[in-house]
Amino acid sequence: MFTRRATLAFSLAAALVAGASAMAFAEPEHTPFTPAAFQAAQHAGKPILVQIHASWCPVCAAQAPILSELLSQPQYRDMVVFRVDFDSQKDAVKSFKAREQSTLITFKGTTEVGRSVGDTHKGSIEALLSHAI
Fold first, then answer.
1. Helical axes 58-71 vs 4-24, angle rounded to 10°
2. pTM for this one?
3. pLDDT for 15
């Protein structure tokens, strides 16, 4: 039988773990993709990440907490993140020459500086992002 103090401590610990889990799996902030917004970010010389994403994709889901963690770091604060929906934005997917969801493409201004498909390793995703800054 738990004492009142043990029950409160357990409840607090459970709340902290739940809060940390929710933060760990938060989706990274992204700018809605439009060709005009993308071109504006390019011409402003911004570092850019384009995510070719599908809501049903398990790899995309695995990338989300990694990207969230990395993009919260100060060196990526100016990175503009565009999410392109693999299913509903076929013209954009085609314009980026992406054949699969879970494609990550980085740009430094107007120049593509990196691309990966299906990557869920934090170190290589961080290297990909760092090419754009």
1. 100
2. 0.77
3. 37
